[in-house]
């Protein structure tokens, strides 16, 4: 995970992510399809909450596939069927890609942020 964080520019002394700065406080505008996610990157994806899989996890789907999303610690603030755009770190979770969400934007424009103390 350490190399993942360096790639994402999240460790002290690492260069900031390309979309960092006061003019870019929300999710990046360039979204990628779930099928195009790559381990070790920070990505913005848009999809529909397919199902809640745990207190702090859910599956997000788009036309290309679905991915497990971790928001923890906390309780998933979305409803099944809700459309969200989220930005997060892509990593492998037991061999499968997963996204550790940093923030999300609902269809109405409201924004939710998530903290991951284990990062």
TrEMBL record:
The record's InterPro entries line, in alphabetical order, gives: BOBF_sf
Keyword list (alphabetical) reads: Signal
Q: What SUPFAM superfamilies does this protein map onto?
A: Hypothetical protein YgiW
**Entry keyword annotation includes Signal:** yes
Q: Which domain of life is it from?
A: Bacteria
- Give the residue range of the signal peptide: 1-20
**Keyword Signal: yes or no?**
yes
Write the protein's name.
Answer: Bacterial OB-fold domain-containing protein
């Amino acid at each position: 995970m350490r190399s993942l964080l360096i790639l994402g520019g999240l460790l002290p002394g690492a260069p900031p992510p390309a979309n960092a700065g006061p003019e870019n406080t929300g999710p990046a505008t360039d979204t990628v399809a779930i099928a195009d996610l790559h381990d070790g990157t920070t990505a913005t994806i848009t999809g529909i909450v397919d199902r809640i899989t745990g207190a702090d996890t859910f599956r997000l789907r788009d036309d290309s596939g679905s991915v497990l999303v971790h928001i923890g610690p906390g309780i998933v603030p979305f409803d099944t069927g809700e459309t969200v755009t989220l930005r997060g770190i892509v990593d492998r979770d037991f061999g499968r890609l997963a996204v550790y969400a940093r923030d999300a934007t609902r269809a109405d424009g409201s924004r939710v942020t998530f903290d991951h103390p284990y990062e």
